[in-house]
What does this fold into?
Amino acid sequence: KATVSVLNCVSRATNTMLMRSAWAGMGRRWVSEAAINKRHAQHKLTARERVELFCDPGTFRERDAEVVHNCNDFGLNKSHPAGDGLITGVGKVHGRDVYLFSQDFLVLGGSMSLTNAAKMCKIMDEAMKVGVPVVGLNDSGGARIQEGINSLAGYADVFLRNTMASGVIPQISVIMGPCAGGAVYSPAMTDFTFMVQDTSFMFVTGPDVVKTVTHEVVTKEELGGAGTHESKSGVCHGSFVNELEALQKLRTFYSYLPLNNREGAPQLKATDARDRDCGVLDRIIPPETTTAYDMHGVIEPIVDEGSFYEIQPKFAKNIITGFARMEGRTVAIIANQPKHNAGVLDIDSSSKAARFVRFADAFNIPIITLVDVPGFLPGVSQEWNGIIRHGAKLLYAYCEATVPKLTVITRKAYGGAYDVMSSKHIRGDMNYAWPTAEIAVMGAKGACEIIHRRSTPEELEKKTKEYQDTFCTPMQAAKKGYVDAVIKPSDTRRLLCEDLERLKNKKCENPWKKHGNIPL
It folds into this structure.
């Protein structure tokens, strides 16, 4: 890892500030320079370095820097470090406000105390009042055992704020060290969770407990490392090579998000013409319907150049989710990926896309859906593990969404998956199809094997060709008004930009209810 020299530069630039802030309150003591150097040798930044690198220079204003814990048991009466191992405050990122906290592993292991929780809750309450996102930089040994149930009470106080803030302000968690036990549930309830490779871990119970209870031998990395959570569990929305990259990419990510649920999607200055050449799209769909292609090759020409920021790229690869910009305006992209499992919908891809749709809808971000889906994945495992319930999540999310919804069918749109992927029937605002689109109950071969099951092979082949020509085209749907237009692929960007401009003031309300009962 070639980060040591950079970390040393960061250390020299911030060391004076760090040492000043590390000066403890009652029973004054220093965080030693040796401890800081040891941390850098582990390729980790200090809690304050993380804050200063994430915020615009000179903008961070700390809160409650002198607050101390009130526990006097188990020797803690001899140590009352100022700030109690948690840095909280407000700063700016690209000139926009942000509330944040950073756990300091160098002070009592960054453990959660009642005082810690009170500091967190204070900034979360204020963030909700003023409508500003909260970013948490997590690096903690867990609950402060010396405080007993007070520590658990502190966690619960934070969990409640996470829940109340959900859908009101964006909440982002970055795991930059250990995060275990009850501590994992706060990041899990935030909107996005990112991790640093090799140095961050999340698990409810660690490897030792797992070995004792289940006799399974597993490492921390295998059980709860970034690789596990970004590719297997889906808990992590993305990972970074080191902390410097994490903070830099986090700043970029923050620029896509509105500050709260009353604001529209962020609008930057348009630098990419809506009518630029997108001729590559006219040639991207293979002539054989069974041949795979990369949907990224469709996304990139449509959105503003270089603006696509993918979310959960290594989890449920058969569907793509991410933010992008269209003429400077933030949009959410959901797209089937034919390159992986033919773009079929399964349990993981349905859950992944559903949560992303709901975030976009909660924060007024228009949704663009690119469709090439052969249906839902068949199989005993999928049925037994609840594909019906999980698939219904995505259907529910699209149905309840009231933001502008634009849909482009590039190739296959078969069966129930056609309905689910933001079809006209579930309030899609503009639904387009490319000439290569196939909108049908199922593929021609499968349909004819059912309809003409008593036919000879020669007759079946003829019937299949007839079915393909008649029904596996976009024209049947266009004649019925289920797609608004069959368009030239190279016109897609221009049309979507025009639609987004026209729909920016869209008003649509759902019936009053306490809340819906999404099939969780």
Observations:
- The first helix runs from residue 4 to 22.
- The two ends are 41 Å apart (CA to CA).
- Residues 99 and 134 are 5 Å apart (CA to CA).
- Confidence is low (pLDDT under 50) at residues 1-30.
